[in-house]
Amino acid sequence: MLWSLLLLPLLVAGYVWLLKRKRQQVVAFSGVSWILQNMSLPSPWRRHVPPALIALAVALLLLASARPMARVTLPADYMTLIMAMDVSRSMLAEDVDPSRIKAAQKAAKEFLQDLPSNVRVGIVSFAGNAQVVQHVSQDKDELVAAIDRFQLQRGTATGSGLLLALNTLRPEAKIDLEAALYNPNPFGYNPQGNAGQSGGAQSLDAKPKPAERPAEPPGSYKGGAIVLLTDGRRTTGPDPLKAAQMAADLGVRVYTVGFGTPNGFIPGYEGYSFFTQVDEESLKGVAKITEADYFKAGSAEDLKQVYKHLSTQFTLEKRDTEITALLSGLALLLVLLAIFLSALWFKIAPQNSFKSAT
Fold first, then answer.
1. How far apart are CA 280 and CA 94, in angstroms?
2. What is the DSSP-derived secondary structure letter of residue 145?
3. Which domains are delineated in the chain?
4. Is 342 exposed, middle or buried (0-12, 13-18, 19+ CB in 10 A)?
5. What is the per-residue pLDDT across 13-25, written as a single tens digit (0 to 9) for each?
6. In 197-341, where do the E strands start and end?
7. CA dihedral 194, 196, 199, 204 (to 10 degrees)
8. What is the rounded average pLDDT of the residues 103-110?
9. Global pTM?
10. What angle do CA 187, 189, 192 make, to 5 degrees?
11. In this predicted model, what pLDDT tens digit does every residue of 295-317 receive, in sequence order?
């Protein structure tokens, strides 16, 4: 249907031909000055405006016939949000008043209260390992209570938290968490035998290899998203960038939040004082791979603003939507405007009519 736009040059050529044809039709009249005094001449450019509007309207209608699509922002449908929050002991740092963990809990609870009712939430915490603190729910009281139950632990397994959040969001993908989070064969045992032959010994707990899913376009999953908050760098567990690639292959966006200041430290904890610093490069990489955004929060107020911005992300979403009706409506408005301008500029009023000579 887009080939039909080639009709437009033909319409323009026909319009130019009509203008030239009208110039050839002249009338002999002796009193030219009398004519000029008794008629009003429109501005030279006005005569071309209504035809131009009509031509533009025809172009929009031809374009609409091709049923074009556009990515527009619309209210989000029913969706699920998974919050993956760092509960490592570095969250005890007091560079954010009163502490990182207290400020993060407060901001997260306020964020939950601002979410619309059509958004369900699940909560995953991670430190040396990851666990589901609260399964997906719409009960905000349960979610708030889950955040209050956070227990700080050693280590920071960012990749584990992301994978568990991804499995919670998309259980139908059947992610093999055992293989992803743990090494099922630490001693290098070959279940096919030393020679790799089919007749070798088989592992008693061997699992069938799951069928590979075709990769989905990054950011294409509209059923939900993941928000990952951490204040440090990975010390154990899988690489978060590889986990992010798994999320991208499932079309899931992972919004990352780096929380804390460069000078954050824990004074005198268990006889030690150590600095805690955000691994911004990894968090930016996770967000980029999944076509999401990275946010830096250096204070409790910054974190509150980040969550406030995220709440709008999940209230409105971008979708590929057919805009045929929009283009057709715009074409109708252009036609009506052309008719209105023609009636306004080129109507024949009594005072502009020729006066008969007596």
1. 19
2. H
3. 74-175+213-320 (3.40.50.410)
4. middle
5. 888 888 777 665 5
6. 224-230, 254-259, 265-269, 272-275, 294-297, 316-322
7. 70
8. 92
9. 0.63
10. 170
11. 999 888 888 888 888 877 666 56
